Amino acid sequence: MPEHLFPALVTPPTKEALRFGGRGLTYPELAAVAGTLARRLEGAGRVAVWATPTIETSVAVVAALLAGTPAVPVNPKIGERELGHIIGDSEPALVLAEPGAALPGPLAELPRIDVELTGDPVEPLPEPDAEAPALIVYTSGTTGPPKGVVLPRRAVAKTLDALREAWAWTSGDVLVHGLPLFHVHGLILGILGPLRRGGTVRHLGRFSTDGVAAALASGGTMLFGVPTMYHRIAEEAGAKPELAAALRGARLLVSGSAALPVHDHERITAATGQQVVERYGMTETLMNTSVRVDGERRPGTVGVPLPGVEVRLVDESGAVLEGSDGESVGEIQVRGVNLFTEYLNRPDATAEAFADGWFRTGDMATRDADGYLKIVGRKATDLIKSGGYKIGAGEIENALLEHPGVAEAAVTGEPDPDLGERVVAWIVPDGERPSEQELADHVARLLTPHKRPRVVRYLDALPRNDMGKVLKRALDG
């Protein structure tokens, strides 16, 4: 018989499971509420979830998982065209939403169940097979229409158990975060992770440093965030003793979804004594690597492979890079228990994504002698071939952020008749605008001359998505 995805909902402890602001559910209450809803969803086929940052979204997804019904989380800020594609592609039988939520076009036409926080204790439904679909999470669609990533229950369970081992994550942990609930980070790690452990989630609803400080100071032990959140923490922790003290008292601070600049790592450590842990994952793979809680914390790295995950670096010819010199750049390819099953309705894309059973991530990295990976960027947008050198944009961005006149930085490549590609820096100044020559000299001094930006363009802000990732395709070359 398959292992239960949420053992704590089978024999519920009396402790709190979920809290969103002033509303919370204990484990017995969650088991009753989600179990009652699961009975209504049994055999329904796929269900869409209007994934607002609320307790109702959490209940809806848990109920779908208890029923063995694949859930399709939908971004509440989604545009009409993308929503139409997702609904047409996944064909949900119905939509789950918080009472009173106004749903747009294609969702409003579906049968709807309002998620009510009521229910009586029910006998748990049989646990589905480990390979059964748990969630269908749509990619951001940067290279075409979003693809539906079919995540089996096995991948969810194995990833969360690997993080338990890497982070010493227990039922005693209280996780604080304010992440969206339609992505892997906020939903699978941030909601399902604590529930699988039998721990507690305190969701901030909307991120604020004051909210973080209050939640951590009142018993929170872990914080999940993305770089834009940690950048605000880095900016404010030195001037807010209560924020610094709350962070200092946490057991673990974790950053993900994009690289956290080394400069922000250093500022947070200086203000709090804490060293932020980074991990690396994707929608298709869930989590691949992490800095371990009992390992050395090296700013700018994403640690070592998690249990059950194999990682290799491959050069442009497809040859596996042997050795770990910390300099050779290769594409990360992974295989293991964490992988998705397929892209929904896209056997062509599924086949193209794999090489001999290894998933091609499209992310480029170096690996040092201890096996620590350092992400240097995306193969399509962050690997710059200039003057015969392969240059990772991330390294230059970190160097630029060390300049006192730089608040934000992004680096891209653009065609150059002499170099092949030239390095372009997109800068949001911090105060007085540093000159192009000043920034080029700064990078050349910290790194090497061939990595210096040849062109600097100044912006008021960098374009970012909901998870704080810079949208480099929106930067005009």
TrEMBL record:
Report the NCBIfam families cross-referenced here.
PRK07787.1
**Residues of the AMP-binding enzyme C-terminal domain:** 395-469
Q: Which family does it belong to?
A: Belongs to the ATP-dependent AMP-binding enzyme family.
Q: Which Pfam families match?
A: AMP-binding, AMP-binding_C
Q: Which organism is it from?
A: Amycolatopsis minnesotensis
The record's InterPro entries line, in alphabetical order, gives: AMP-bd_C, AMP-bd_C_sf, AMP-binding_CS, AMP-dep_synth/lig_dom, ANL_N_sf
Q: What name does this protein carry? A: Acyl-CoA synthetase
Q: Which residues form the AMP-dependent synthetase/ligase domain?
A: 12-344
